[in-house]
């Protein structure tokens, strides 16, 4: 059990992998109030009395249904101050990002049970749930005792998950690595210095950065911000639009990490999201004018050196 008897969770959707969501809720110390269908979600959530964490499973859900329901999910969650976690696969990146990127939602692409536990622990610490209000009324000593017990319990649960993965047949660990490597660009030969207006030279810098992955473990370079800035700057010079899923590929990290950084850079005013006027299920990412000017100045200043 979690603080105050556990935190409440409402699950939207949940198909073939719904059991993983239920397992994560239990291991994180929560309790599932109910599961509701995507089609019934708006009306059902407005009748919600408690303030639960929302876990929406978009995996395998049709694009048209997601495009219709995700904005309503976001609006309802914002109105009721509900933390949101969305589970998705690579196929759903663009439609989910078009509606939820930049809002207070955790987007998990191909999550493991451990990923879900971490997201639930973060989500329950946001918002003003009755459980948290009761927790705040406790004495300092009792809060610390409960916190230590909860940390120990979650650590034990994660250790058990790690043990199960280690005991699983060959392929389990590889699957985790595949989620990362599938979004890693191909290495290429070194390239010339970049002119601030030369898209080809900027692309060459990106290819050279990918050479590192052939020599070092890719997870040594998990911060994708610079790669995404370079990619969007090159696209701006080329007059090309970049979808969210394409930007995740350019980031060369796990898609959940890429989505988190796209959100951060959007909040920082470096990226802007531009809806596709022809298809509401899509959105494109671009550099803000201020970010593009900074990239131009950087490449101009670095032109006599070796920009990476």
Automatic annotation (TrEMBL):
Pfam families: HTH_27. Keywords: DNA-binding. InterPro entries: HTH_MarR-typ, WH-like_DNA-bd_sf, WH_DNA-bd_sf. The keyword Cell membrane does not apply. Gene3D superfamilies: Winged helix-like DNA-binding domain superfamily/Winged helix DNA-binding domain. SUPFAM superfamilies: Winged helix' DNA-binding domain. GO terms for molecular function: DNA binding; DNA-binding transcription factor activity. The keyword DNA-binding applies. Signal peptide: none annotated. Residues 238-290 form the HTH marR-type domain. It comes from the Bacteria. This is DNA-binding transcriptional regulator, MarR family. It comes from Sphingomonas carotinifaciens.
């Amino acid at each position: 059990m979690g603080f105050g008897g556990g935190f409440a969770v409402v699950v939207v959707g949940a198909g073939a992998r719904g059991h993983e969501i239920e397992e994560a809720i239990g291991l994180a110390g929560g309790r599932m109030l109910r599961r509701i269908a995507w089609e019934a979600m708006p009306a059902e959530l407005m009748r919600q009395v408690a303030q639960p964490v929302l876990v929406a499973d978009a995996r395998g859900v049709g694009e048209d249904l997601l495009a219709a329901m995700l904005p309503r999910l976001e609006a309802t969650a914002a109105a009721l101050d509900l933390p949101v976690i969305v589970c998705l696969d690579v196929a759903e990146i663009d439609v989910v990002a078009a509606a939820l990127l930049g809002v207070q939602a955790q987007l998990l692409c191909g999550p493991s049970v451990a990923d879900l536990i971490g997201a639930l622990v973060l989500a329950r610490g946001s918002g003003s749930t009755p459980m948290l209000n009761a927790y705040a009324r406790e004495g300092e000593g009792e809060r610390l005792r409960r916190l230590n017990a909860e940390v120990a319990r979650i650590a034990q649960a994660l250790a058990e998950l790690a043990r199960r993965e280690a005991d699983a047949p060959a392929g389990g660990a590889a699957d985790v690595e595949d989620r990362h490597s599938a979004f890693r660009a191909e290495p290429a030969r070194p390239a010339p210095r970049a002119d601030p207006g030369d898209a080809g030279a900027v692309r060459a810098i990106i290819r050279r950065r990918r050479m590192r992955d052939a020599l070092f473990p890719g997870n040594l370079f998990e911060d994708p911000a610079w790669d995404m800035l370079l990619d969007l700057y090159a696209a701006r010079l080329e007059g090309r639009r970049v979808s969210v899923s394409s930007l995740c590929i350019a980031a060369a990290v796990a898609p959940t990490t890429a989505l988190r950084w796209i959100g951060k850079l959007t909040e920082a005013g470096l990226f802007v999201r531009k809806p596709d006027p022809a298809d509401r299920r899509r959105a494109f990412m671009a550099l803000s004018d201020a970010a593009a000017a900074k990239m131009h100045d950087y490449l101009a200043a670095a032109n006599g050196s070796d920009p990476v």
